[in-house]
Amino acid sequence: MSVVASVPGMASRRSVLTLLGAPALLGLHGLARAGAQIEEPLADAVRNALSAAISSGEPPEPVFADTESRLRYLHWKVEMNTRLVGRNADLKTLQHRDEFLQTLWYDCQRARLDVALVLGLIQVESNFRQFAVSSAGARGYMQVMPFWARSIGDGDANTLFRMKLNLRFGCVILRHYLNLERDDPFMALGRYNGSRGKKTYPDAVQGARRRWEFSA
User: Fold this and answer.
1) Residue of 25, 27, 36, 205 with fewest CB within 10 Å of its CB?
2) What are the tens digits of pLDDT across the range 78-101?
3) Would residue 30 count as lying in a domain?
């Protein structure tokens, strides 16, 4: 993935993020059927790095090195906004979609993630439902398991329903799994879903990812 813009504080957080050492569909009542991420022991350095990445107070405001990069971002946001229209009631207003996309783009750049891949993951995990809950208890857009709030957050799993915090957690966790798997998306996505080594979930996310690819 090529990063097209710089993000405030990205350089200062890069060392922190470097340390981070069947598909979910919605039921009738917003219940997502996500797999269960496995809670694994974390080394203190990794736990501290993850916690620092989550707790950063940096606002998701992109800063661009040149006009071309800024225009590419704006074109991307307009296109993604169009694709999201009518997908569900949780992103029904232009303001909500704009905030969602800006936050997601920022956190993907910050964590060195392909934004199309993360959009595909969100589609598979929650179908863009902010308050989706899986049978395993995973929450929100990116179906974050409650143990992450205890392990690297403030301990309150209800905060995982907050849009900005949920996207931050999800991106940081996915980067952590990619680091563990040496940037192998197949294995990292399996860890994210709790089905490491099985192809159903990674294939579903990669299939959804193609729907969110963008070329200016």
Assistant:
1) 27
2) 999 999 997 777 898 999 999 999
3) no
Any idea which of 30-34, 39-43, 82-86 has the lowest mean pLDDT? 30-34
d(CA 84, CA 90): 10
What CATH number has the domain bearing residue 196? 1.10.530
φ, ψ (nearest 5 deg) of residue 164: -65, -40
- State whether the Cα torsion 33-128-113-20 is positive or negative: negative
pTM of the model: 0.83
Tell me, yes or no, whether 195 lies in a domain: yes
| Number of domains the chain contains | 1
CA distance 52 to 39: 19
Question: What pLDDT score does 188 carry?
Answer: 97
Q: How far is CA 45 from CA 21, 145, 157, 182, in A?
A: 9, 21, 23, 18
